[in-house]
Amino acid sequence: MSARALLVARTVLIAVGVLIIGFGAYTLHATVRPTSLRGLGIWILAAIILHDVVLAPFVVGVGVLLRRVGRVLPAWTLITVQSAVALAAVLAAVVLPEIDAKHHVQRNPTVVPFDYGMRLGVVEGVLAVIVVVVLVVGISASGRRTSGGRPSKRRAG
Fold this sequence. Notes:
It is a single chain. By secondary structure, this protein is mainly α. It has a domain at 53-147. The chain has four helices and no strands. The radius of gyration is 23 Å and the shape is flat. The protein starts with a helix and ends in a 10-residue tail after the last helix.
């Protein structure tokens, strides 16, 4: 790609980003009461802390462990497991406030009408089963690949 094309692409992306930020600021100003801004700020700060302190290190740690094992596992196995772990972490972060709200909003049961804890458990369980199946299939595929007369891709170190 030429330098001119890169410059045009960057300029367009920056312009689109500025427009989206402007639209978000307008929507925030038009829809959120000034008294609610403090709570919104706390919520955003908590989301950033949750992501940077809990979710990101957990997903990176799983990725590091998988890369160590990944010397013998196919790439699709690693990608699937990492995606499932990231999905499970984000899903938990999104659903945990609803689980907490279920215990605090007793005056109006229609605000949080479902059993979010059970549903989160079911989805996380399904993701765990998918991870186990993918790892078993990946390990068996890796075993067939290395025992078929070809050398293993395993590196020393």
